[in-house]
Design goal:
Helix content is 41%, strand content 26%. It has 440 residues and is of the alpha/beta class. The structure holds zinc ion (2 copies). The site of one zinc ion has 6 residues, from helix 1 and helix 3.
């Protein structure tokens, strides 16, 4: 018997589907062939995992974990192998991780394999990162779960990002912008051309803001095209395109092809390279309204990021109409909210004076069943919104520094994120601690 023959018989052998002679022949080969022995061990492990995955208890466990995550309003589910034994399960709710379960060693591989099977990922491949997707319906709502696996030393970890396909996107007026910030953004969206940039770290709610902006300009008179990775929501009337790097459909390739379809509004998800950014900026100065996101800490930082990437300052000044930055702060739970004595340290950090507190109580959530005893439920954006008017545009074009732009912006009434979150603390919708946490 040679190795090729041995390999074709391994599965049948493990399932006890071979006769005695064939069994002996294979065992003799395996005794002397480390490669086939390795193959056999791999197949045996895989078989036990897929068998475990098909057990009703495992299927139920996976279903229950997903449904509970949806009920808890989790944005993602994390399966993380601990040492060689347990599998830790955590939900991220309102941006913060909570442990919800530990799967014991007998079910651990079954659970991971079950999720991978549901997401149509290769079950036998456990040593490279994989992506998958599973759709489900629960209580008449459609959910799209993006599954990603990464091999760690204790085994494969999985993250399931949950997208609620049936959720209605909030309009701009529900995102808790201050009146003047909202007015500025609506003004930008009324322009026929120019670039709008939304900045913030991953998970700061940029996508929601961008989609809300798209809904604002969405009308039969406008042709809107997006290039995203991934497409998170679909807005009727908008042409959403998904990046496909393997097929050569990159952000830059998509943008070049878009011009042939003559869009009025273009949304470009994350841009990290100069080529994409230049295409987007050119679109913005040639009659298109362009929405874009960047990873910077604050609004003014976006200007420096563009010039650092190699964009000429004059092009930045000529194309930008507005830059905003944001974070997400947890909202105090409505069910257990109570006024408290504010902690002087946190108030000092926020720059809240005792006079300002005088007329406004500081609130906190004391914790209840509705908020998993965290005192928080739901989140709000915290923003800074900067309109690039003629003065600022020419300063940028002339290579003004960060602090020069900041000073000029403040003179025009620009309010930083710190001021926005401070107002939200004084409004009693979030806490000084949470405000401090999101600003750091
Ligand atoms: Zn062999
Ligand atoms: Zn509560």
């Amino acid at each position: 018997m040679n190795c090729d023959q041995a390999r074709t018989e391994i599965i049948a052998y493990l399932k006890n589907e071979v006769d005695l002679t064939a069994r002996k022949r294979l065992e003799e080969h395996i005794a002397f062939c480390p490669n086939c022995r390795h193959e056999l061990e791999g197949a045996r492990r895989l078989l036990s995992w897929t068998e475990a995955a098909s057990q009703e208890a495992v299927a139920e466990k996976v279903k229950e974990l997903i449904i509970n995550a949806i009920a808890a309003g989790a944005s993602d589910i994390h399966f993380e192998p601990q040492r060689d034994t347990e599998l830790q399960v955590r939900y991220r709710v309102d941006g913060v991780m909570h442990e919800v379960d530990r799967i014991d060693p007998t079910q651990r591989h079954g659970v991971v394999t079950r999720v991978k099977m549901l997401a149509e990922m290769s079950v036998s491949e456990t040593s490279v990162p994989l992506d998958g997707r599973l759709m489900m319906t629960h209580n008449d709502k459609d959910y799209d779960l993006r599954v990603s696996s990464v091999p760690f030393v204790f085994g494969e970890a999985l993250v399931l990002r949950i997208f609620d396909r049936s959720a209605s996107l909030p309009g701009l007026d529900r995102l808790r912008f201050s009146e003047s910030d909202l007015e500025q953004i609506r003004n930008w969206l009324g322009q026929p051309n120019g670039m709008i940039i939304v900045t913030g770290p991953t998970g700061s709610g940029k996508t929601t803001t961008l989609y809300s902006m798209l809904m604002e300009v969405n009308s039969p008179e406008h042709k809107i095209m997006t290039i995203e990775d991934p497409v998170e929501y679909v807005i009727p009337g908008v042409n959403h395109a998904q990046v496909n790097v393997k097929a050569g459909f990159t952000f830059a390739a998509a943008l070049r092809s878009f011009f042939r379809h003559d869009p009025d509004v273009i949304m470009v998800g994350e841009t990290r390279d100069l080529e994409t950014e230049l295409l987007a900026l050119r679109a913005a100065i040639t009659g298109h309204l362009v929405l874009n996101t960047l990873h910077t800490n604050d609004a003014i930082g976006a200007i420096g990021r563009l010039t650092d990437m190699g964009v000429e300052p004059f092009l930045v000044g000529a194309s930008l109409i507005g830059v905003m930055s944001q974070r997400l702060a947890r909202l105090i739970c409505r069910d257990c909210r109570e006024p408290v004595d504010a902690d002087a340290g946190a108030l000092g950090y926020l720059g809240i004076t005792s006079e300002e507190i005088a007329g406004n109580a500081i609130y906190r959530g004391k914790g209840c069943d509705n908020c998993r005893h965290t005192g928080y439920k739901g989140r709000t954006g915290v923003y800074e919104v900067l309109t690039i008017d003629k003065d600022l545009a020419s300063m940028i074009g002339n290579g003004a520094t960060y602090s020069e732009i900041l000073e000029a912006a403040k003179a025009k009434g620009f309010r930083t994120m710190r001021e926005d979150v401070k107002r939200k603390v004084l409004d009693g919708i979030t806490t000084p601690e949470e405000a401090t946490r999101v600003l750091v």
